[in-house]
Specification:
Pfam families: NUDIX. With 132 residues, the protein is of the alpha+beta class. Helices cover 17% and strands 40% of the residues. β5 and β6 form a beta hairpin. The protein is globular, with a radius of gyration of 14 Å. It binds 8-OXO-2'-deoxyguanosine-5'-triphosphate. 8-OXO-2'-deoxyguanosine-5'-triphosphate (8DG) binds next to β1, β4 and β6.
Length: 132
C-alpha cells in the first residue's frame, strides 16, 4: 500500500439548493471522474485554510469554510486518501473551470447520476440522505 494523502473537498451549495460538481480532466490523476473541488492539505495547514486556498487557486473565486461535513478514507490501488469534505459558502466571484474539464450544479437527488471518484462515494451518499 502506498502513501496516504490528506485531501480537502468543498461542498458548495447555490441559492437553488444545487451542489457544485467538478469533472477531473484527462490530464489529472483519477481522470474523467467527478469530484468535489479541492486538493491536498499542505504541511502546517488547517483543513479550513486548505480548502479556501485550493478553491481560490482552482476555481478563481473565494469561499468561506463553514462546517466539517464528512471525513472518509479510501484505498486506491497505489495510494490512499483521507478525504475531509467541508461545507463552504461562496463569498465572491463565480466558480470557473481552469484545471477541470467541466463544472456543473446538481440537485442532491441527482448526484448519483455522475461517475464519482471512488473516494467521493461516501460523501455523495451522505449528501443524498440529507434530502430524504
Ligand atoms: N480535490 C479532490 N481530490 C480528490 C477527490 N476525491 C479523490 O479521490 N481525490 C484525489 C485525486 C487526487 O489523487 C487527490 C487530490 O489531488 P489534487 O490533484 O486535486 O490536489 P492538488 O491540487 O493539491 O494536486 P497537485 O496537482 O497540485 O499536486 O485526491 C475530491 O473529491 N476532490
Amino acid at each position: 500500500m502506498g502513501k496516504t494523502l490528506s485531501v480537502v473537498a468543498a461542498i458548495i451549495e447555490n441559492e437553488n439548493e444545487e451542489i457544485l460538481c467538478a469533472l477531473r480532466s484527462p490530464k489529472m490523476s483519477i481522470p474523467n471522474q467527478w469530484e468535489f473541488p479541492g486538493g491536498k492539505i499542505q504541511e502546517g495547514e488547517r483543513p479550513e485554510e486548505a480548502i479556501e486556498r485550493e478553491i481560490n487557486e482552482e476555481l478563481k473565486c473565494t469561499v468561506k469554510a463553514n462546517t466539517m461535513f464528512l471525513k472518509s478514507h479510501h484505498d486506491y490501488e497505489t495510494f490512499s486518501i483521507d478525504l475531509t469534505a467541508i461545507k463552504c459558502t461562496l463569498t465572491s466571484g463565480l466558480p470557473t473551470a481552469h484545471e477541470h474539464s467541466k463544472l456543473i450544479w446538481l440537485k442532491r437527488e441527482n448526484l448519483d447520476s455522475l461517475r464519482w471518484a471512488p473516494a467521493d462515494v461516501a460523501t455523495v451518499e451522505q449528501l443524498m440522505t440529507e434530502c430524504l
